[in-house]
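FAQ: What does a multi-protein file look like?

Like this. Sequence, then tokens, then the next protein.
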Amino acid sequence: MTLPNFITIARFVLVPVIILAMINDEMMIAFVLFLLAGVSDGVDGFIARQFNQRSELGTWLDPIADKVLLVSVFVMLGWLNVLPNWLVLLAVSRDTLIIGAVVLSSLMDQPVAMRPLFISKANTTAQILLIVLILAELAGIAEFGAVTVWMIYITAGLTIASASAYLVTWLRHMAGNGETG
């Protein structure tokens, strides 16, 4: 197993620990572990590129680990009533749409290679930043007030734009009218 794959698997292991910390109102622990998970995502990618340790397994595991982390924390923040349920539903629905499209196209013998779009990267960045702001507030580190509110709406807009872009890309692929990605 490559070092990047090991780091990615460790990120999977952090998810239930972060959620348990949130359930137990240990927000400083959740905040620090979420930051650690974020740093580990960058580190595993750097190692994979810099030391030519890319693998097919890592190509699949890394984005799955990211989604499991983000979706789990989003759902938990919704459950704790600190993130609007409509935003949680929007984010989870977007990810479900993407996964469903990939699975359906494979079942229909038209596999699609869904590469991250720029808007998707912007969406993920906004989701991460929003989670960091909220966990920092819950941990008592800082109060962001209006910034957090703006980030909620920015994240919602990027989520809708990203879902729409992936849907258009997928529909074109399924119709045979263009490349994916």
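And here is the next protein:
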Amino acid sequence: MLPEDYRRFCEVAPKELKEPYFFQNAKTQPEVGFGLSRIRNSNTTGCTQCEYNGRAKKPTYNCGIFIDIFPLVYVPESKLKIAYHKAMMKFWRYVMSGRNYIKYINVQKGAKRVHWKELHHPSVVAYYVMSLFIKDEKFLPCALKAHDMFRSGKRVGMIPFYGYNEKCIWDKSFFDESVDLPFEDITIPCPKEYDKVLRKQYGDYTVFVKGAAVHTIAVMDPDTPYHIKLRDHYKEFEKK
């Protein structure tokens, strides 16, 4: 989704989506990474292995079947700006990793406090140092700004999720117009230059190649709400 559209979508979606649909990102559920957003169906269960091992141990974490929404951001032309962009993203990802560990992951392990050995991890140290200068509620806005700091450019890419992977960086003109394409029993608006987008990212996408999955699903049930399907999983965590 183009930068302007994605920012607007993140403002509108939490207000407009009604049950059973839930808009999930770092703002609506802080445990989520800030490189993407998701729309989840709360009347279903679609729990990834990563979630099952961590975030899904909390009944408040939505584990319905989801659709990922990846933001595009503008790519600067200057090599110096690109270097600065990379450095800022890396720094804030480090800080947010330490923050999320302290506030969410460690708690989900059943620990009441952080073990002294874990205080030596660089991301945890970075979080505590930044906490001396910035209030906690400012961390997420700073991290988001670091990833989406440019407001114009000839190229866009899935930088917040994939970093500066050239396969996922395209001319913005590829997305200027859309075309409706059939998908099963519906039609979906896609970039008019979808062929150029897909070929750069995947090569000859028309040839079937067996590959690895991005997500490893731990629990899948389209007919049972996650808070019922994962009830025993919650109990196991509470016993610890």
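Q: Is there any per-entry metadata?
A: Some entries carry free-text notes. For the entry above: The longest helix spans residues 79-108.
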